[in-house]
Amino acid sequence: MKELLRSTDPTTIAFATALLQGEGIACFEMDVNMSVLEGSIGILPRRLMVRTEELQQAERVMLDNDIALGRVL
């Protein structure tokens, strides 16, 4: 799996997940438990992972919907 997106904003992760699922791209959210442990102050980013072979398609979906990649949002 490869990291597609890293964000401290749970709405961005939820929106990206919905977009990917709508395109039939499987994704997995990592670091959810770590962000819960830190006490909901939002300093630890969550990561959205996709299969390596679906990474380019997933990146295109994110860019088409104005979701920035490659940095913490």
From TrEMBL:
Q: What InterPro entries does the database record attribute to this sequence? A: DUF2007 (IPR018551), N-reg_PII-like_a/b (IPR011322)
DUF2007 domain location is: 1-62
Superkingdom of origin: Bacteria
Pfam family membership, one: DUF2007
- Put simply, this protein is called Signal transducing protein
